[in-house]
Design brief:
Layout: H1 2-12, E1 30-34, E2 42-44, E3 47-49, H2 51-63, E4 67-71, H3 74-82, E5 88-92, H4 96-99, E6 102-110, E7 113-117, H5 127-132, E8 138-141, H6 148-159, E9 163-166, H7 169-178, E10 183-186, H8 188-196, E11 208-212, E12 219-226, H9 232-248, H10 250-258, H11 261-264, E13 268-270
Parallel strand pairs: 1-4, 8-9
Antiparallel strand pairs: 2-3, 5-12, 6-12, 6-13, 7-10, 7-11
Helix pairs in contact: 1-9
């Protein structure tokens, strides 16, 4: 896989690598706290890897920008970025609040799914039905944000005592497996990766169903470049690098290499 990704990146970054003088360079290390996010970002034994970190590290020699990754919970990752103590937020979906402090660079397109354990019927066909059927309990990851309708749903379910807010996807999966929660809302690859990397969840993936809901259509997913922590020059360099990375096709290639088509169809596509 990495040979293929290197070829894609080399083609994408040729204009930046013609001569040493022409090579882009960030003025300092780029600070990137991350949380486990499926195969997009993986944390094993304290080591940060995954589609985004590995591809960005592969760009360092050509671009002169050095990325410093650290592992934090998702909610803290978002807080650090919003407070100006992180330079990049990834992977991320665009939100009005983040647009006030950072510039979004789309990398792929995602569709968030309603994920539940297979049964006689889907837990709900819409967010409205989720609210109406008061026996249903939803588990989500604290810090995930899929827009205003998603946030409003969580607020109302929280008032009704039907919401579990967990620190990561594996915790959500364990609640589904135990029957403590009936459904979750997130991208299919996130759940698939969590289940496959957790021995205690063995066999759960085959029991899950993935349903699109109308209130959550396709949306871009990618990276935010901070306007609070970075100089205008570094902002420009990073926007250009991320855009070239997206155009190279390497991000989508990473997803296709790691996931069965069942997990991508209807959930992930090129931007």
């Amino acid at each position: 896989m990495y040979d293929r990704l290197s070829r894609l990146l080399s083609a994408a970054l040729i204009p930046l690598a013609v001569t040493p003088a022409a090579m882009a360079a960030c003025s300092r290390d780029i600070i990137v706290p991350v949380a486990a996010s499926g195969e997009a970002v993986t944390i094993e034994g304290g080591e940060v890897h995954g589609i985004y970190p590995d591809l960005m590290r592969s760009m360092e020699q050509k671009t002169g920008c050095h990325f410093v990754f650290s592992n934090v919970p998702r909610a803290r990752q978002v807080a650090l970025f919003e407070n100006g103590n992180a330079d990049l937020l990834l992977p991320a979906s665009p939100t009005p609040g983040r647009d006030q402090i950072a510039t979004f660079v789309p990398m792929v397109s995602h569709r968030t799914m309603l994920i539940s354990v297979m049964g006689e019927r889907a837990p709900a066909a819409s967010m409205h039905e989720l609210l109406e059927r008061r026996e249903l309990r939803l588990a989500v990851v604290r810090g995930f944000d899929y827009g205003e309708q998603y946030s409003s749903l969580l607020k109302e379910l929280g008032k009704q005592g039907r919401l579990f807010m967990e620190v990561d996807v594996r915790a959500v999966a364990r609640l589904l497996q135990a029957g403590s929660a009936d459904a979750t809302i997130m991208g299919s690859p996130l759940m698939a990766s969590a289940v496959e990397h957790e021995p205690r969840l063995k066999g759960l993936l085959d029991k899950l169903r993935f349903d699109a809901i109308p209130e959550l259509p396709w949306h871009p997913s990618g990276a935010y470049v901070s306007r609070k922590s970075l100089t205008p020059e570094d902002q420009r360099e990073l926007r250009e690098l991320l855009d070239k990375l997206a155009k190279s096709g390497a991000v989508m290639e990473g997803y296709q290499h790691r996931f069965h088509p069942r997990m991508l169809n209807g959930s992930v596509r090129a931007r």
